[in-house]
Write a structure and sequence with these properties.
Layout lengths: L5 H19 L5 H5 L2 H23 L8 H12 L6 H24 L3 H14 L4 H15 L2
Helix pairs in contact: 1-3, 1-5, 3-4, 6-7
Length: 147
């Protein structure tokens, strides 16, 4: 298992989910999304991050094995990218991502507050040029105060 504390993977996933939503919000269907090369490629990268981080959470026994499907999906898009079905990607984004986010939010809410604060604060430097990601990190810090 990675030497990173698990809270990093939780925050990585929350950031990636927020980016996927930003990158896809303007599209009404899979075909429009797939034909926007930058948005499609950026989204695929964030889905890979979600899958990789999920693998570490499963290995750390923080997520049930039922979420292995997220890891398997990551492996398909990372290694079998020529056969990717845009409708399947769109379905993951528009239907299944919400359910997964709820699960990750539960992990966030049940994690060590002090470690989460350190992890979130350490991300500010990495994302200082991304106003929207900084806003998400700020929101996550504010949520910790009410935890």
């Amino acid at each position: 298992m990675s030497k990173r504390v698990v809270e990093f993977f939780i925050v990585d996933i929350l950031i990636a989910i927020e980016k996927v939503r930003r990158y896809t919000t303007e599209f009404k269907c899979a075909q429009d999304f797939m034909h926007d090369e930058k948005s499609f490629d950026a989204t695929m990268r964030e889905l890979e991050i979600i899958g990789e981080a999920t693998k570490h959470l499963i290995r750390g026994n923080l997520l049930d094995n039922e979420w292995q499907i997220v890891v398997d999906f990551r492996n398909v898009i990372a290694h079998e990218y020529f056969g990717i079905d845009s409708d399947e990607i769109w379905e993951v984004i528009t239907i299944y991502l919400d359910t997964f986010e709820l699960e990750i939010t539960k992990l966030f809410n049940n994690s060590n507050k002090e470690i989460l604060q350190d992890v979130i604060e350490s991300n500010f430097e990495d994302f200082k040029y991304s106003e929207k990601t900084v806003a998400l990190l700020t929101n996550l810090l504010e949520n910790l105060r009410f935890k």
